[in-house]
Design a protein that fits this description.
Elements: H1 2-6, H2 24-27, E1 32-33, E2 36-37, H3 39-75
Antiparallel strand pairs: 1-2
Length: 78
């Protein structure tokens, strides 16, 4: 929003926002029209993806720790 207020534009088309999914002028904030979704919808989708990746990595790390404990016990005859 600071860039919009300051009048900064981004190449190559001199858009007011740097990414297509942040363009509230053409897509709106919470609208679904012309095969495109609004800015808030994009943000919710991206938050879901980030949370999904974080959850998956957490589970992967937990599985690796359990496997390491089992492997250590097998080495020492436990």
């Amino acid at each position: 929003m600071v860039c919009v207020i300051a009048g900064i534009t981004f190449p190559p088309d001199n858009q007011t926002v740097p990414y297509f999914f942040l363009n509230y002028e053409t897509d709106g904030w919470v609208e679904v029209k012309n095969g495109s979704i609004g800015v808030v919808d994009w943000v919710i989708i991206m938050m879901g993806l980030v949370l999904g990746i974080a959850f998956s990595l957490q589970k992967l790390i937990q599985c690796a720790e359990v496997a390491a404990k089992k492997d250590k016990g097998a080495r020492y005859g436990k």
